[in-house]
Amino acid sequence: MYKDYILGKKAVLFDLDGTIVDNLHYWEEAVTNVAGTLDIGSSPNSKLVYKGVCLTEIWKDFITESKVKNSKSLEDLVKETKDAYLKIISTEESIEPRYGFWSLLREFKDKKFLVGLVSNSSKDVVDIMLNKLDIKYELFDVVVTGDEVKNKKPHPEIYLTAAKKLKTNPKEILVFEDSVIGAISANKAGMDLIVIWSGQFPEYDYPEKTLTFLDDFHSLPGNLDQTFMEYFKQEAQKSAPPGAIIK
């Protein structure tokens, strides 16, 4: 019944952190661990991690608002946070893609869609997470990471870069995002959007044109060949009296 969402589409783009994989709590833990080394008794607002704010902006805002005076540069804090995150996930044995991702990816591939990965994270971090998830780069027609663009999300550059590499009109691309920042980026790029929603932020914080909010991917595979109207007619027909035809 989700055919309406892919009509006229030629490509799909997936965000990584929080979308393909439920891993933002690891980033939150990494930020908290690094804040602990500053010995000031506080840490950045964890909601910024779930909102999709990049590490540089998270630490910049924290230093400004808390008026922290420390010997660590912004670059050091970002690097230490990345290192802490990679250390955390290296010890985790149960990191898996969200429910339904593999089936959905296979279905898009079968339908000859172009498939891409777009992440604000740097390539080295993306490499390690994909390896952890056993997701091969070859599965994607394009991968764009945060260190390849001048402006990260919520700026649309990263999504427009992916569209350019795919040689596809942004209007012909469907995006899967989880964060408010990422959703704004895709919306500004002129792409339709489905949000993998954690409930951390209310739906009204996301772009008004968001197609739908889902917990994960499992309801999509096997339901991309039927429109909502066709689905409702089918369900109505099941409960109709014998011989009745629903039009």
Provide an overview of this structure.
Helix 2 packs across helix 5. The mean pLDDT is 91. The protein folds into 2 domains: 161 residues, HAD superfamily/HAD-like (Rossmann fold, 3-Layer(aba) Sandwich), CATH 3.40.50; 67 residues. It is 42% helix and 11% strand. The chain has 247 residues and is of the alpha/beta class. It has 10 helices and 6 strands, in the order H-E-H-H-H-H-H-E-H-E-H-E-H-E-E-H.
Alpha carbon gyration radius: 20 Å
Task: Please tell me the overall pLDDT.
Answer: 91
Count of structural domains: 2
Uncertain runs: none
Distance between the termini: 17 Å
Q: Spatial order of the strands in the main sheet?
A: 3-2-1-4-5-6
State the share of residues found in helices, binned by percent: 40-55%
Order of helices and strands: HEHHHHHEHEHEHEEH
Strand content: 5-15%
User: Within the CATH hierarchy, at the fold level, what is the topology of the largest domain?
Assistant: Rossmann fold
* Largest sheet geometry: 6 strands, parallel
The global form is elongated
Query: Can you identify the CATH class of the largest domain?
Result: Alpha Beta
At the fourth level of CATH, the homologous superfamily of the largest domain is HAD superfamily/HAD-like
What is the number of helical segments per DSSP (H or I, 4+ residues)?
A: 10
Structural class: alpha/beta
Pfam family, one: HAD_2
Organism: candidate division WWE3 bacterium RBG_19FT_COMBO_34_6
Protein name: FCP1 homology domain-containing protein
GO molecular function: phosphatase activity
